[in-house]
Amino acid sequence: MFSPGFTRQLVLAALCAGALAPGRSVAAEPVQIDGITEPFLDVTLGASVAGIIHTEFFKEGDAVKKGDVILELDKKLEELEVERRKAVMDQDKFEMNSTRTLSEKTKSVSKETLAKAEAEYNIAAAEYGIAVEQLAHRQVVAPFSGSIAEILLRPGAACAPYEPVVRLVDTSRCYFVGHMDGKAAAQLLLNQPVKIIIEGAPAPVTGKMCFISPVVDSASGLAKVKAVFDNSDGIIRPGLAARMIAE
After folding, report:
1. Helix (H) or strand (E) holding 245
2. Where is average pLDDT lowest: 15-19, 125-129, 182-186, 211-215?
């Protein structure tokens, strides 16, 4: 249920839209839908491997950019393995180049020997790449720019593969999400401009329809609809109740 103050706000918005204007027919009234606001992106992140959380680079509420490392697991063994694999790869590369030089200048090295040296280097390079990738899996990296809404595990805690450890949200844009009568949903169009009144917001915001469910829930007879709106100024905190008005 909306608060009395929010209800008054809805009435004022309806008056401005002309929904309550005298003499206006019922058929001409705008479509009004109650719903809730949600972040444009809302994901829970975890590491793909088991380990002990070692370092926390950001705290809850911090803004992060795509590619930033948020948390890091213990990684000493993986770092040593990378160093070992690199040393082997560098040695195999040196031997391959030396063998190739002898083959080209003196013809004293058979093609089979050169092919073997090249194969050993290629294998060493692949194993080095695998070690680097395994080291990268010790980090929880932001897949998009946003804000940290929650950190579920702290340094020193053990985590299982893919166990949720961080919740990351992008609120630079938000969704209005609501459900309406399936037949009435036919009045809406994709990219149609809409007005969204959000509880606690200083003024309505303008958005556009971005999703109209192609199916209607057989039990309730309702269809899900979504509208997206800009929130780059961060005024709206997703999760608040709202009403969408589509004229």
Report:
1. strand 241-246
2. 15-19
